Amino acid sequence: MAPARSRPLSGQLPFVLQLLEDESPLVRRGVVRELRRYGVRLAPALEQLDPPASTRHRELLQELLRDHLGRLLLRQWGQVVLCQDPDQKLEAGLEAVSLYVDGFKARTPLPTQLDQSAATLRTTLRRRSLAELIRKLRLGPARLLGGAVETAPAEAFSLAQMMAGGSGIPLGQALVLRQIARRLDLECEVWPLPGLVLVAETTPSGRQFLDPAASGPPLARDQIASFFACPAPLLQRLQGLPPEVDHLLEQWLRTFLRSMRRRGAVREAALSLGLLRSLHGRRIGP
């Protein structure tokens, strides 16, 4: 007698969906385990169901997966906070947030994309300078799905998707530029300012500030001052030490938090607040 064949994943999905309404922790863990087997095939499998999944089942599925991804992010963030290497810490934190936002979408990990981009640029850069890197990388204006940074959608905070041609925000562009520059042994300071993000490198003539999304010349002091109503304190700050990695991660999370609050995304806002607390040594919650 021939051995029974296991049911293909596509055939199992209707049975898994029926279990979504069971609130037993044991059942929910089993459902998540089954759904994880689909990986990036989950979305196509849902679209191919006949009859299609109900609106209720789709909502329960999204909620369950977000719960799972949130717990995964909290575990990863615990390792991020403990990381002693600044560059690794920043990149691990950015990838952890990207992974949460991407969920089960097809994706290439952020570090892999940064490695690939740096490998290509290493052979094409004519001058080893930050200005030349900006020109070659051609990030262009941040492509926001939701308009202003303050109301940017969650997708704009996945640097992995941004590098693959998705949406982004200016701070994300600057952080990508920084991580690629480090791989090329180039200096790239990131300066998040109110309503503006600059990058900088030190030259024989002093620190030069650049727009990470434009290939123009360095910004003069009066150009930078023109962006602000009270420029003196900010210009003074730009003469000091560049922001450290923890500050960059904090600014990334604060931007995420503000955007999610304004969009009414309660779960994501609470999660980003918990990550912020952990950066300052407080209990990771909620």
Provide a count of the helices: 13
> Hey, roughly how much beta strand do the residues contain?
5-15%
Number of strands: 3
Q: Would you list the SSEs in sequence order as H and E?
A: HHHHHHHHHEEEHHHH
What is the global morphology? elongated
- The largest sheet has its strands arranged as 1-2-3
Give the total of domains: 2
Task: Write up what this structure looks like.
This protein has 13 helices and 3 strands, in the order H-H-H-H-H-H-H-H-H-E-E-E-H-H-H-H. It has 286 residues and is mainly α. It folds into 2 domains: 8-45 and 54-83, no CATH class; 85-279, no CATH class. The protein has a 3-stranded antiparallel β-sheet, with helices on one face. Helix 4 packs antiparallel against helix 5 (86-102).
What are the defining features of this structure?
2 domains, disordered N terminus, about 5% strand, about 290 residues, 3-stranded antiparallel β-sheet, single chain, mainly alpha
Task: Give the topology, please.
Blueprint: H1 9-18, H2 25-38, H3 42-47, H4 55-82, H5 86-102, H6 110-124, H7 130-137, H8 159-163, H9 170-183, E1 189-193, E2 196-203, E3 206-210, H10 221-225, H11 231-237, H12 245-262, H13 266-279
Antiparallel strand pairs: 1-2, 2-3
Task: Put the structure in a nutshell.
This protein has 286 residues and is mainly alpha-helical. The protein has two domains: 8-45 and 54-83, no CATH class; 85-279, no CATH class. The protein contains 13 helices and three strands, in the order H-H-H-H-H-H-H-H-H-E-E-E-H-H-H-H.
